[in-house]
Amino acid sequence: MVSIDQESAAGRTSSGRGRWSEYTRLTREIKQAGLLDRRRGWYAAKIGVNLALLVGGCAVFAVVGESWWQLVTAAYLAVVFTQIAFVGHDAGHRQLFRSRRANDLVGLIHANLLIGVSFDWWVGKHNRHHSNPNHEDLDPDISITALAFTADQANSKHGLVRMIARYQAYLFFPLLLLEAAHLHLASIKAIVRSRGQADTVEALLFLVHAAGYVTALVLVLSPLQAVVFVLVQQGLFGLYLGCSFAPNHKGMPTLAEGEELDFLRRQVLTSRNVRGSRFVDFLLGGLNYQIEHHLFPSMPRPNLHRAQPLIRAFCQQHDIGYTETTMFGSYAQAVRHLHTVGAPLRPAAAAD
Fold it and tell me: What's the CA gap between 77 and 212, in Å, rounded?
């Protein structure tokens, strides 16, 4: 793979018009292939299946009643919540409809009402990530308090956070168990600080979700079972969600202030695809086509696998590194990167 530094130098020596013309040609090919056309039927079926799975899980929860077997239900609902989150993600990118209002409606229902995450807050955060993927100053996805993705970030850690960063490679997956809690808390903060009619709708939908979730626990389970159910369901929800996003950029080259790349290279060189089957497509919600998704965020999810060979060939033709690996290979690369970044903070490294 061509390094970021090499690509940056190449980008600086070519004109802005030349660099944008590459992406313009690629966009023309994508449009001519019909890959930006909406897939309303596919999404209608996907949403219908997800809602059926959710209703089925709630029905089983009610029928099983006060039992420790409900932990199986908790694990099942963690999977369903994540699949619902994937549709919310797609709505945030306007993949379902041309209309912003229609996409926002689907997003609000899936995010605020069904899984308890602020749609507006998440879309703003995610759009900043898409604008500057893996940029240590501008990408919120690598500005995480407990983790360090660059040497500068590692050196800036202090106290307990520094200790966590030392062994972050070992703690990465356990920390993902807290991801759902982080999303809920960040959503609450964003909703409380917001004002306006749209924010009121967000708040009401979020409250309906929280009230329904808590009421079901109180009516069906004992206090201890309810606490354990929440820990399992929310923990696995966060783990699954985190494991779906982690392969995409973690361990890929990072950008710092002053490093400039054109849009095409910025998106491709910082992203990683995950090889696999249609099952992997389902499991990762289409995020395994991360390069294609970053180049064309509004491309409907079912079109990503059709766009991949075209985009991969285009990158090869223009000598742009296109990274693709297996799911477990992507995790290994991410963990190795975290281990390397945290190495200077460990006592053994300091002693040497």
Answer: 14
Tell me the DSSP string of 36-103. TS--HHHHHHHHHHHHHHHHHHHHHHHHH-SSTTHHHHHHHHHHHHHHHHHHHHHHHTT-S-S-HHHH
Strands 324-325 and 273-274: parallel
What is the distance between the alpha carbons of residues 88 and 96, in angstroms, rounded to a whole number?
A: 10
Cα angle 27-101-271, degrees, rounded to a multiple of 5 = 40
Mean confidence (pLDDT) of the chain: 91
Is the Cβ–Cβ distance between 198 and 103 less than 8 Å? no
What percent of the chain has pLDDT above 90?
Answer: 81
DSSP string of 160-207? HHHHHHHTHHHHHHHHHTTHHHHHHHHHHHHHHH--SHHHHHHHHHHH
For residues 17 and 253, what is the distance between their CA atoms, to the nearest angstrom?
25
Give rounded-to-5 percent helix, strand, coil for the chain.
70, 0, 25
The two three-digit tokens of residue 159, written as one number: 């106290």
CA distances from 277 to 49, 142, 249, 282, 326 (A): 20, 28, 20, 9, 11
Q: What number of other Cβ atoms are within 10 A of residue 53's Cβ?
A: 16
Instruction: Map residue 143 onto helix, strand or coil.
Output: coil
Average pLDDT over residues 161-165: 92
> Is residue 258 very low, low, confident or very high in pLDDT (cuts 50, 70, 90)?
confident
Phi then psi for residue 274, to 5 deg, are -115, 120
**Closest alpha carbon to 53 in 104, 108, 94, 114:** 114
> What pTM does this model have?
0.91
* Over residues 278-306, mean pLDDT: 97
Residues 6+ apart with CB under 8 A from 109: 205
Tokens representing 129 are 């990530």
